[in-house]
Design brief:
Layout (H helix, E strand, L loop, with lengths): L2 H24 L11 H28 L6 H23 L4 H20 L2 H4 L5 H22 L2
Helix pairs in contact: 2-3, 2-6, 3-4, 4-6
Length: about 150
């Protein structure tokens, strides 16, 4: 086998190996990431919940500043949730043994916040108070991640 044949064979084998990946990209499908551990899922969910909660808290503060007192419950709930997810994120990220004990409390804070955000659901279909909808969704994911983490070995 000469040098040219080796190069051709090498390139051919490389293309053969890359075929499935290239086919996925051509079809517009993203490669599937490996399954996250309960801890990794919790870290991602708490970070997302904190970020969306900050947006919701700012929205509630703006509504309260306009005199819209129906956002008082939502504002209080989102502030409690944010404090809880910040602590949960710190504990989970550091691998603290206290994280397992904190997870059920964090799940409860997310559940309470989601319920408060849900009070504004009637406005979502009209494109209003969507910060509450996004926070509601993030809280649901975070609650599930907390519950799964608490139950993991």
């Amino acid at each position: 086998m000469n040098r040219r044949e080796m190069m051709t064979t090498g390139v051919g084998l490389g293309l053969l190996a890359a075929g499935p990946v290239l086919a996925e990209k051509a079809a517009g499908a993203a490669p599937k990431p490996p399954a996250a551990s309960p801890r990794d899922a919790l870290i991602a969910a708490t970070a997302d919940c904190e970020r969306e909660g900050a947006v919701c808290a700012a929205h509630c503060a703006g509504e309260l500043a306009k005199g819209n007192k129906e956002f008082a419950h939502c504002a209080a709930s989102v502030n409690d949730m944010r404090a809880m997810v910040q602590a949960m994120l710190a504990l989970a990220s550091s691998g603290s043994a206290l994280a397992k004990k904190m997870a059920p409390l964090c799940a409860e804070a997310c559940k309470t916040c989601a319920a408060a955000c849900l009070e504004h659901k009637a406005h979502w279909e009209h494109g209003m108070h969507l910060a509450c909808k996004t926070c509601f969704d993030a809280c649901g994911v975070c609650e599930k991640a907390c519950t799964a983490f608490a139950a993991s070995a």
